[in-house]
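Quick log. Single chain, no ligands specified.
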Amino acid sequence: MSLTWNYPIYLLPHQGGYASIVDPDGGADPDYHLVVYTDEEIAESQMAAFGLLGDPRPLHNDREFGWLLQSLQGPVRKVSFDPKPIEQNVNARWTVEVAALLADHLHPDNSPWNYPIFAIAEGAGFASIAGPAANGGVMALALFTTEERVHSYMKSSSEEGTICRLENLQEAVRFLRGLRDYVEAVALDPTVEDGRHAAQYCFTIDTLLEKYLVPKDNDSANS
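-> predicted structure:
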């Protein structure tokens, strides 16, 4: 089965947990299907239709989805994506065993951020700041973990450029590999205070590519 979705995806909070649907074909000991929606507006409309209070809870990547799935206990053994129940029909886009999702469809990684992340294209390059003195003052590419932080930085620094969005691990790896000959480091969520550019976290690009931007299955090979 081929499954493709973009994050965030959404759960429906209900009674201290998350909404699920009883398997209509489960007999006397049925499985329950965790309900997952790939569109926030549809998730909100389904919460209203089911009479549920609150807001949908977003999951931002395979890592968060995997943690949630690993915490599930019986009888919740399946996941239904985008269900729109009609009488006894779950009417889902996909229904998948929890174990199969974890084994075959989720590929968590060690990224030090959730996706998407953002850079600022400026002419032939990208916005950067001077790295820490300990790194010899190298130039560090500015990367941002939210679009709001990009806009805040551009406003406070008077930078002009085009916001570039990196949706996942694969895009981040390709992007950084293409820049490693031009910049040596990444400054995460830089800010501007009193005219000075600074970031709490700064990684060399080699460290990111070798230690963090790898699937968890490759931990042992990169430790």
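The CA atoms of residues 10 and 58 lie 5 Å apart.
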